[in-house]
Amino acid sequence: MNINALMKQAQKMQSDMTKAQRELEKTLFEFDSAGGAIHLSIYGNRKIEKIEIDRDAIDPDDKEMLEDMIKLAINEAIERIDEENEKIQAKLTSGMRMPF
């Protein structure tokens, strides 16, 4: 394979990766956490669309527990988005890790 063919292949891979990343960024992920007490809607670009909290989960005397449930929901969502991103990279690079 000559260098021009390799360059074209690399450019196509980069273009496909950019397109896939843009699609991921627009994807809305829905998560339930803390036994359904927290519902989180977040885009693949990690922008939160909505957080819904079940009224029964709101205990004015246990603010820390609610904060922990929200933190857990957000962290789970970010982890899932990262997993989806890794799947996209693996698919487009045939498993070869890319530095982005």
What are the defining features of this structure?
100 residues; single chain; alpha+beta
In short:
The protein has helices spanning 3-26, 63-93; strands at 28-33, 38-43, 48-53. By secondary structure, the chain is α+β, with helices and mostly antiparallel strands. Helix 1 (3-26) packs antiparallel against helix 2 (63-93).
Descriptive account of the structure:
- The chain is of the alpha+beta class and about 100 residues long.
- About 55% of the residues lie in helices and about 20% in strands.
- It contains two helices and three strands.
- The chain has helices at about 5-25, 65-95, and strands at about 30-35, 40-45, 50-55.
- The protein has a three-stranded antiparallel beta sheet with strand order 1-2-3.
- Helix 1 runs antiparallel to helix 2.
- It starts with a helix and ends in a 7-residue tail after the last helix.
- The relative contact order is 0.16.
- The mean pLDDT is about 90.
